[in-house]
Amino acid sequence: MEYEIPHKPSYAQLNLSLEPGESVRAEGGAMVSHTAGIDVETKAEGGLLKSLSRSVLGGESFFMNTFTASQDSTLRLAPALPGDIQHHELDDETLFVQSTSFVASDPAIDVDTEFGGGKTFFGGEGLFLLTLSGTGPAFISSYGAIDELTVEPGDAVVVDTGHIVAFEESLDFDVRKVGGLKSTLFSGEGLVCEFRGEGTVWTQTRSPDAFLSWLIPKLPTPSSS
Asked: Domain of life, per the record (predicted)?
């Protein structure tokens, strides 16, 4: 499977070149187009309960599409939000991903949810995080461009919860307030994640929550009669 990601970092699209017999699993609704010679199978990946937990708790679609090439073909995918797409080559490891950031992966990659404790609830990620586990290529998306932050042993990296895209399982994290009550309420920052250990955190340059906070007050309200 070969790939290219044009139109980075604002409106990235994932173009996959598939050889006969190659397959890729993608989030429902991600397909832009494909050439002839691709079969599409839609199913509740992993069974009813696993798909339900991924949908309700992980923020992903209940159904996923598996695209299989019967000849040399091209498949084009795009996320829902304008932003970047990044390739990750997993090697018998797990990547924690925010909801809505999964785009596609090799079918051998297990896409699931995992209980993260109460701290993930207060961090705005719900009680569950999306996990990508196994060996093979995976592609994640962001709202805005993607930055890569390295966490060194003995150091800490603090990230606003709305800007987290993904992080490695080697990292520990705690969710806390920016400062005191006044800072939490009026600084516009809310809650942050403090990452420790050794590994990488990927962040996005825009926050969907911040955009909605700006947009919603500007929307017209229905007049009362």
From this structure: Archaea
100 or 218, greater pLDDT = 218
Are the CB atoms for 1 and 67 separated by under 8 Å? no
Residue with tokens 């895209």: 165
Give the domain ranges of the chain: 2-205
Give dist(CA 47, CA 111) in Å, integer: 12
Tokens encoding 41: 């199978």
* Fold classification of 2-205 (topology level): Double-stranded beta-helix (3.60.160)
CB contact at 8 A, 151 and 195: yes
Rounded to two decimals, what is the model's pTM?
A: 0.82
Q: Does 45 have pLDDT greater than 60?
A: no
Each residue's pLDDT tens digit, 109-135: 998 876 554 455 445 544 457 889 999
Q: Scanning the structure block, which residue is given the tokens 């996005």?
A: 204
